[in-house]
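Work Package 3 (structural annotation) set out to generate three-dimensional models for the target panel prioritized at the project kickoff. During this period the team completed the workflow that converts sequence records into discrete structure tokens, so that structures can be stored uniformly alongside our sequence database. As a representative example, we reproduce one entry of 73 residues exactly as it appears in the project archive.
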Amino acid sequence: MAGKILETKMGYVKEVNPTYIVTSNPGCLMQMKAGINKEKQTSTIQAVHIVEIIYEQIKKVSKNLATYEAITH
């Protein structure tokens, strides 16, 4: 059953051709990474947990804020 679900999901991925697949479910993340590997799409598509996206954005904002504070003080 999981294989059929992954097949369906990867069909949608092929249609959309995203850069990222974002999920909050660890099981789904593992399944999507397996599908990306199986389809040999690792150079074009990355499956990530939503927390990774949030963390990267916080790092960018923090860096920009530190630069702004350094310039204005």
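The two ends are 60 Å apart (CA to CA).
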